[in-house]
Amino acid sequence: MENSEKNLRDWSEIIAGLSPEERLDDLLCSGRRIIQNTKEFCFSLDAVLLAHYPRYKKHWRVFDLGTGTGVMPLLIADEVKEIHALEINPVMASLAKRNVVLNNLQEKIHVSEGDYRRIRELYPPESFDCVIANPPYRPVNQGQLNSLDGVARARHEVTATLQDVVKAARYLLRFRGRFAMVHLPERLGEIIVAMAENQIQVKRLQLVQPKPDKTSNLVLIEGVAGAAPGGMKAELPLIVHEADGSYTREILDIYNM
Predict the structure, then answer these.
(1) β partners of residue 208
(2) Could you give the CA distance from residue 123 to residue 157 in angstroms, rounded to a whole number?
(3) How far apart are CA 254 and CA 233, in angstroms?
(4) Do 140 and 29 form a contact (C-beta atoms < 8 A)?
(5) CA 102, CA 112: separation in Å to the nearest integer?
(6) What is the model's pTM?
(7) Whole-number Å distance between alpha carbons of 205 and 200
(8) Chain segment 206-226, per-residue pLDDT in tens
(9) Integer Cα distance of 211 and 76 in angstroms
(10) What is the DSSP pairing of strand 200-209 with strand 218-225?
(11) Which residues pair with 200 in a beta bridge?
């Protein structure tokens, strides 16, 4: 009872210390919570789906390219040995670091501010077992850029392209390491080509549909560094909502509900 009351007091103090632009959300994962800035890009379902897509191993060292608020490291911290995360936006990088401390995961998760286009200056090559990335989806000449800079960077290739993220992933991955990404189905051809050009062969692919009768709006894709071509497994589509709008059983399981 005393511990419960202390936890409630701790969370109350944290909430009281948030700025007007910040909010505290429950991750529904091992009691973890996350601070988000409403003027920046807040994570959504695609990050949660990607975090759960790879089949992690306990001894793995994982790298998150463009971590944002640090949501994916928080979600997978119990499944791997160590996670490094890089974020170019100083506001988001600071927020991700605070979220690590908030959840007492400093020994497991290491967040740095930096540009993954300069990854060779920041980390040694082929030193990670798995790289995950939820990169900007659209080229800068497509769509309406949001007036909020942080949101624009997260949605459009303002600071890095698809080729940039794949190159960085390959540099970080050991031979036979895994690269997992969430992106738009309309860019699947570009993704497969970019991965192949960087010696990563696609081995798993899953389309995501909003509802059973709706076309896919996301794709989860995983490749293996240094693997031979062929052998890709196209998995059954992941459907997010039932016809009545409620979450499907698969999504509820992901959210631990």
Answers:
(1) 218, 238
(2) 23
(3) 21
(4) no
(5) 16
(6) 0.89
(7) 14
(8) 999 999 999 999 999 999 999
(9) 26
(10) antiparallel
(11) 225
